[in-house]
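Homework help board

Subject: predicted structure for assignment chain

Our instructor gave us this sequence and asked us to write out the predicted structure in token form, then describe one feature. I got the tokens but I'm not sure how to describe them. Can anyone check?
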Amino acid sequence: MSAQEERDALGLPPALYDHALDLLRTSPDGVPPRRGYSLPWNSEAAEDPLSWEEAKDAVREALDPLPDDPAGLHRNFVRLGIQDGHGHLIRFAVAGLPLPAEQREAARSLGRQLTRTGTTVPAVTAGLALLARLGEPEDIPYLSVLGLFRDLTRAAVDALEVLDRRTAAVVWLTAYARRDALQRLVHALRTADRQTVRTELVTFPTSPRTVSSAVARRIAEASRLPDLLDHHPFDADMLARAGRLLVRMGCSRDDPTDLLAYREALRVYDCVITRAGLLPPTLDNAAMLLSLALDLRSGTGVLLDWPPGRRAALLESLGRLLAGPRWAAVGAAASGTDQRLRADWIRRTGRQPFGRSAPPCGLSIEVVAGDPADREPVETRILIDGRPLVPAVFGHGPAHSPEYLLDEGRLRAGAEPREVQLAEAYCTEGCCGALYVTIRRAGNEVIWENWRRPRTMPGSHEPAPELPAHRFDARAYDAEIARAQADRSWSWPARTMARLINEGLIEQPELLGRWDAERGRVSSGFDDPDTTVVTFWYAPRPASGMPERADGRLQFRWVVPDDGTPPEAQAAAALRRLAEEDPTTYGRVCGGSRRRAEELGFPWPERA
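My token output:
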């Protein structure tokens, strides 16, 4: 009688592993559905659920010391009120358990029993967390099956990462690659049919909406991308797709630590760049190669563990290729708005990664506008001794825009110390934090010190060490900041118009003040970079006759399309209109209180 048959005879619930196997056997082609399987959650909720702090203490008490057998751990969990939703706390507690050498074998045995026979989510989660520290190749089949339960995926993938990164990536994609466009590729990766994997790999869409940095990394790992490139050495489509995946992994607007976590990144960079001559000179390929060059010059790619001189050699190779006659003419016949935007970006940015040497002070500022097809941000990349600061010490989002850091003078050094936010998490500071530094001038030096950032390292649970102070020669520092602010070669007409309008509103706040309004954010449009978007806040004063409310501010949005005339003339015309016409008559409400908008007679947008 099998273990499962014995449980059935005794009326005991099935082991979660056996339940997953049954689900897998009944799935078409043995492939689980998108997002994996749902867990058979325990429906008996605790009468008095634990607070987060109470649950953290209870989990620690249940696990330390580690019980001798699964039954003992189960009793501890039940006695202390540990529920299915405490998986994160269980994983964190197991990761911190002291496990002397003489206890490791017993802990490994317990982990195996829990994963293979455990009937509750807390027990199996504890087993997975133990095998994340102590697992061996024989555990891979059990971990990969349990990872098909979407609520156990993260714990299973953590354990698989150490043992088999390809299997870990396939399990991750099964649960987290939720876009319809990826399902054929995920199916091919699960069946491990090399030819089908190749076919699907070169055809699925790689837009940011479909492929995040994490998805790009997992696809590269699951497909064994370097092996595919070696198996198809003259396959231009495969080569272009490999480059595109590298671009997506290093995207600063997403999570650039995925590029650093991809162990085969150097090998793929090498393949793509040394074979780039095989690629046809299309707009897509030119944008991909230029994006890689920008990343190798000042982005996350700099932080990879390059052999001495190799990164510079690859950059030089890309520079020669893109300067050649086959590639220099790319974009000349671009048609349609999107192609024209991309061709203009390539013309503006094409030589940026291959030019200027580092300044003598150790601080370098590079304003980088990313591929407009991906709606990448314009970021102020800060390099200290040649290494990009923000992805190295923060990694939760890109550096702020040049308008914020340079045009508004935040990087200038004065006698009075000033704290500056260099970057904010892509989710918000309240969620994943921000990066701050205090800048001050001391005699002939400018000092960056007193850093503030999240408590853990990017892409890790390890505590973040204190960052050292950096000292720069004041004269060279001032020159570098001035040079970066004056260099507008990265900009385009709508962005220039936005800067000039913003400067005009700062110099003349009365332009909006006369309409009971104040300046908001002014920038180029995200969805349409050929527009300038002026936002402002409107709060009528009591004297205007409008009802007054404490929460009475409304946000308006005025979109100014680029009409092809010089941006200086367009900005001057926009400022004249703001001076002469009430902007609430041509702007549109985009934020604030719906009730307040209706009180004041303004239509509320369908999507605010």
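Reply (TA_rk): Your tokens look well-formed. For the description, you could write something like this. The chain has a mean pLDDT of 91. That's the kind of observation they're looking for.
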